[in-house]
Amino acid sequence: TSPFVWLRTRFYYLLIRLYFDQEFSIEEFTRGAKQAFSVVSKLLSQRKLDLLEELVSAEVLQVLKEKISVLPDNHRDALAADIDAIMYTTEGDVRIYYDDDGRKFVSILMRFWYLNGANLPDEVPGETKVFQIMFGDESTKEKRHLLTANYEFQREFTEGAKPDWTITRIEHPRLLE
């Protein structure tokens, strides 16, 4: 990321700690986001969308129901990210905003890069084959793909609101379109 974006996000983290949550830690948030990403991506892959109701906004869940129902099996398999297969995580955009009713929100976009062994065609644009592992002979080689996903987490900080982060955007480029 650019130095400007890095500085801006650190400034927003300071504002979050000063005005919304004195206990906020980006390291702890990132750990939780990785766990949530792994759980949600596996549930998407398994088509267990009813289990996502507490984790994902109703709007996103409705869109996911439509997209998952027509997704090819190999693309659905590629959605699943084991927490140990997450190679890199970074924050994208951080926003602090108020709605028309004066409610306070914080939104953090997280970007994940993960390895997946789904049987994807070689010509899938937007993904990169990282390596092929050869065990024994040519017939037993195993391909791994480096895939990306963007998940946006939102929390309402209005007094009396539940202190839960909700996923308000899910993007798996070239897989979940």
From TrEMBL:
GO terms for molecular function: ribosome binding. It comes from the Eukaryota. GO terms for cellular component: mitochondrial inner membrane. One of its GO terms (biological process) is protein insertion into mitochondrial inner membrane from matrix. This is MAIP1 protein. It comes from Eubucco bourcierii. The lineage of its organism: Eukaryota, Metazoa, Chordata, Craniata, Vertebrata.
